[in-house]
Design brief:
This protein has helices spanning 3-17, 21-42, 49-74, 78-83, 88-115, 125-149, 156-170, 182-189, 192-205, 213-238. It is mainly α. It has one domain (3-238). Helix 2 (21-42) packs parallel to helix 5 (88-115), helix 5 (88-115) packs across helix 10 (213-238) and helix 9 runs antiparallel to helix 10 (213-238). It is globular, with a radius of gyration of 17 Å.
C-alpha cells in the first residue's frame, strides 16, 4: 500500500465533492442547526454535548462519503479509479480519510458552538481528540460500505438516513440509555454510535453511562477495520 496514492486520491475527492449538495445539506447544515437548536433551547448543554458532537461527526462523515460514491457510481467515473494503478484498499482508505476529515471539520465547528453554552470545561482534550478521530473513521467507513451495498446509488442517502436517524435515539445521544429498560440498553449496545457517545462523554465530562471508555475505544477501532474490510470486499464483488 502506498500512502502517496491514498493522499492523491483523497486530495481529488476533497476538491471534487467538498461543495456537493449532499455534503453541505446533510453533512454541514443539518448537524449544526440541530446542535444550535438544542443549545438555544436548553442553555446548559453539558450533558447533551457529547451526543450532539457525535451526531455532527456522524452526519458529516457519512454524507461526504455518500455524496462522492453517489456521483461516481451515477456518472460511472468510479471505474476510472479501478483501472488506475491503485489497489481497492487504497481507494477505500482514501475515501474513508476524506470523509473523516470532513466529519472532523463539522464536529470541531459544532464543538465551538457548544463551548459557548457549556458550563464546565472539557475534562481531557487529548482523549477527546482520540475519540473524535476514531468516531470519524468508523462512521466514514460505515457510510462508505452502506453506499456501496445499495444497488441503486440514488437511494444511498435514503438508506443512510434509515440508519442514522434511529441511531440518534438508540445511542444515548439525546437521552441517557440508563433511563430506559434493559432491552433498550441491549439495542443501544448494538448501535455503533453508542460507543462514540460514551467515549466522548467520558473525555468531555469524566463519566460514562453504559460502556467503559476502554471498550468504546476498542469497539470503534474494530468497527473501522471491519467496515474497511467489508468495503474492499464489496468493491471486489461489484467490479
Amino acid at each position: 500500500m502506498s500512502p502517496l496514492k491514498v493522499l492523491t486520491i483523497a486530495e481529488k475527492e476533497l476538491r471534487e465533492y467538498l461543495l456537493k449538495p449532499g455534503s453541505i445539506s446533510w453533512g454541514v447544515v443539518f448537524p449544526l442547526v440541530f446542535t444550535l437548536a438544542f443549545a438555544v433551547r436548553f442553555g446548559d448543554v453539558d450533558h447533551l454535548a457529547p451526543g450532539l458532537l457525535s451526531i455532527s461527526v456522524l452526519f458529516g462523515t457519512t454524507s461526504f462519503v455518500s455524496s462522492s460514491v453517489i456521483f461516481e457510481r451515477r456518472l460511472r467515473t468510479f471505474e476510472r479509479l479501478l483501472v488506475a494503478p491503485v489497489s481497492y484498499l487504497e481507494i477505500v482508505l482514501a475515501k474513508v480519510l476524506t470523509g473523516s476529515l470532513f466529519g472532523l471539520f463539522v464536529g470541531l465547528v459544532g464543538l465551538l458552538f457548544l463551548r459557548f453554552f457549556m458550563a464546565y470545561p472539557i475534562w481531557n482534550i487529548p482523549l477527546l481528540a482520540v475519540y473524535l478521530v476514531l468516531s470519524a473513521v468508523a462512521f466514514s467507513a460505515l457510510g462508505l460500505y452502506v453506499s456501496l451495498v445499495v444497488e441503486n446509488p440514488i437511494n444511498a442517502m435514503t438508506w443512510l438516513n434509515l440508519i442514522r436517524l434511529p441511531m440518534m435515539f438508540t445511542s444515548g445521544a439525546i437521552v441517557s440509555l440508563l433511563l430506559f429498560p434493559r432491552w433498550f440498553i441491549a439495542v443501544g449496545l448494538l448501535t455503533p454510535m453508542t460507543y462514540s457517545v460514551d467515549g466522548l462523554r467520558f473525555a468531555m465530562l469524566h463519566y460514562y453511562d453504559v460502556v467503559n471508555p476502554l471498550y468504546s475505544l476498542l469497539v470503534l477501532l474494530l468497527l473501522a477495520m471491519v467496515f474497511v474490510y467489508l468495503s474492499v470486499t464489496r468493491i471486489e464483488r461489484l467490479y
